[in-house]
Design the sequence.
């Protein structure tokens, strides 16, 4: 593999990584702080992609799609929170998993009824269809935008949680919920807003992914599973862990898909390599996950308690 | 003798299940046999999941993996012209035990939500492996031309297959009950309640849980074998994560920690599915919320509901007797 291609693939990995982080951040915030397992997070991502694509196709403005996504996702998030979280908050994880599993089936079918079963397309906006020059090589501007947006959101999350009053309440609420409530903080509202924030992050991921992946019912599940791998590797409930693990998974997955087949081809017969390469590449991150777990069951960057 | 719903209903259900092929033959509805064949096959898988989920507290969100493994053993071996059922069974059991032991050992290092996610990820790994097996159909799946043949007994005949599956189900329910009542099962149940205490008492709980996980994987593999024979088809979709989710729904809907519960749950779920499919093409728009409602309303599943009904019934009889 040439150095240019290698850097290119690293950037692509980075881009997948920040997309995964947008998903993982929402999932981690809700899980780490409210202890609620939301499998329907992938459905929020799907709804975000569909809504963004629809707004974009009607108005032709990417900026408008980006603006529309925030209130739309906040609304959907609050509705889901009202239906699921309110009633399932005190239940054990199994019930939460099952109920949100039911929500996934519902959302997939809803998308199929509204937008049809076939992929729905969203073009890359014209002003972003060019390339940008990075260290002397041309990289697609849109993919570069994804990286920038992801990093900005990561920074924003960090500042929100560690540098603001709301973040302080969120952190306090995660460990001493009743105490924070007793101090006169509306913890119920705080949780609703946090869930809404998670939904918005998923929606932004959907918006950004729309033009480079096909927007279709069921698109949320593959990325949800990847996100879970990210969370398990990073350490459950840790935003910092989610960020680093997302980058690791993104880069490993992308490099594996491009490099593994050619590496195997140099080591064994071509026909065997052509079969084993893609199989091994798609399993690679799960192997990484298994290796991490074998050494550190709590993940690479677990939350420090006490 | 007083009527006990929690005994009477399961027995009635088993008798009805045993009579299905007779009805299907007389009414000339072969579809009926296939539908109930699926119910029985999934009931076996659900019972196997209940052993670790209901009694061991291990929420495996990737149990369809073993169903898929069993199905692929039949599919791949038949593809190469091997139709010896004993060989299919042997390979399925060994393969599921191996995969179960390795993934189980890694997964059991964690508990709670991490366990759910890891089992899910492992199932996904094998799902992608199946998708990438291009010579065996890849994404499109693989038709099974010849079924498993056990000497003169061949699973190609739907009625034979049905009764074999039914016998396996009865065996699993019986053996499962024996297992959880035995010392082994007590340790598993103890570990579910308080793992640390069991370890303090000197039980290596990890080893016990792993054995339970492997047993469950092997039984689920057998159900996959039967499923491939039933549908004459094998596909990666058998081990997709939605399939694992549906298995959990069956167990929870029927009632955790009771081996009749999963049987009830499998029957209820597949019948509701069939009914909704008849109503609308977009049946999932109703099915999804139905799962949510089922989770919200029933804490102990259908089997638990029978218990509640029993209590109410006996209370009423008592009042009637009191008045008389």
Sequence:
């Amino acid at each position: 593999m040439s150095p240019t291609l290698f850097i290119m693939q690293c950037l692509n990995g980075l881009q997948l990584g920040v997309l995964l982080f947008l998903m993982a951040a929402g999932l981690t915030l809700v899980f780490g702080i409210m202890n609620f397992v939301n499998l329907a997070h992938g459905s929020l991502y799907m709804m975000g992609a569909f809504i963004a694509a629809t707004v974009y196709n009607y108005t032709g403005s990417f900026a408008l799609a980006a603006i529309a996504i925030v209130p739309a996702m906040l609304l959907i998030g609050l509705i889901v929170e009202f239906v699921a979280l309110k009633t399932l908050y005190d239940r054990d994880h199994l019930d939460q998993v099952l109920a949100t599993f039911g929500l996934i089936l519902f959302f997939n079918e809803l998308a199929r009824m509204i937008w049809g079963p076939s992929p729905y397309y969203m073009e890359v906006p014209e002003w972003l269809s060019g390339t940008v020059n990075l260290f002397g090589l041309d990289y697609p501007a849109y993919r570069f935008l994804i990286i920038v947006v992801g990093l900005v959101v990561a920074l924003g999350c960090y500042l929100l949680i560690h540098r603001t009053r709301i973040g302080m309440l969120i952190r306090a609420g995660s460990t001493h919920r009743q105490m924070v409530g007793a101090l006169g903080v509306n913890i119920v509202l705080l949780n609703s807003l946090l869930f809404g924030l998670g939904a918005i992050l998923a929606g932004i991921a959907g918006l950004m992914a729309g033009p480079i992946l096909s927007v279709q019912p069921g698109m949320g599940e593959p990325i949800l599973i990847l996100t879970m791998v990210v969370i398990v590797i990073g350490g459950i409930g840790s935003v910092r862990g989610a960020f680093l693990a997302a980058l690791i998974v993104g880069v490993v997955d992308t490099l594996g898909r491009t490099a593994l087949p050619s590496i195997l081809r140099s080591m064994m017969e071509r026909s065997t390599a052509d079969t084993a390469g893609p199989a091994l590449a798609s399993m690679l991150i799960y192997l990484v996950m298994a290796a991490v777990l074998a050494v550190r069951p709590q993940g690479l960057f677990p939350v420090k308690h006490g | 003798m007083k009527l006990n719903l929690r005994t009477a209903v399961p027995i009635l259900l088993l008798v009805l299940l045993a009579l299905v092929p007779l009805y299907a033959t007389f009414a000339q509805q072969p579809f009926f046999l296939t539908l109930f064949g699926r119910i029985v096959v999934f009931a076996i898988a659900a019972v196997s999941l209940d052993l670790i989920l209901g009694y061991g507290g291990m929420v495996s969100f990737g149990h369809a993996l073993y169903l898929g493994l069993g199905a692929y053993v039949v599919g791949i071996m038949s593809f190469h012209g091997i139709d010896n059922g004993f060989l299919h069974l042997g390979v399925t059991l060994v393969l599921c035990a191996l995969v179960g032991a390795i993934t189980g050992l890694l997964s059991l290092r964690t508990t709670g939500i991490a366990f759910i996610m890891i089992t899910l990820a492992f199932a996904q790994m094998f799902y992608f492996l199946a998708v990438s097996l291009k010579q065996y159909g890849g994404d499109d799946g693989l038709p099974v031309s010849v079924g498993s043949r056990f000497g003169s007994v061949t699973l190609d005949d739907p009625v034979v297959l049905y009764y074999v599956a039914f016998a396996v189900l009865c065996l699993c329910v019986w053996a499962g009950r024996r297992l959880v009542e035995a010392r082994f099962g007590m340790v598993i149940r103890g570990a579910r309640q308080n793992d640390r205490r069991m370890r303090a008492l000197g039980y290596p709980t990890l080893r016990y849980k792993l054995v339970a996980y492997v047993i469950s994987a092997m039984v689920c593999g057998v159900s996959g074998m039967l499923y491939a024979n039933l549908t004459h088809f094998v596909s990666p979709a058998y081990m997709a994560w939605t399939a694992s989710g549906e298995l959990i729904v069956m167990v929870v809907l029927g009632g955790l920690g009771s081996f009749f519960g999963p049987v009830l749950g499998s029957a209820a779920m597949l019948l509701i599915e069939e009914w909704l499919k008849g109503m609308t093409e977009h049946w999932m728009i109703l099915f999804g919320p139905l799962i949510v409602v089922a989770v919200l309303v029933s804490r102990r599943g259908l089997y638990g509901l029978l218990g509640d009904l029993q209590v109410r019934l006996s209370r009423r009889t008592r009042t009637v007797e009191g008045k008389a």
About this structure: The CA atoms of residues 71 and 228 of chain B lie 5 Å apart. The mean pLDDT of chain B is 88. Chain B has one domain: 9-240.
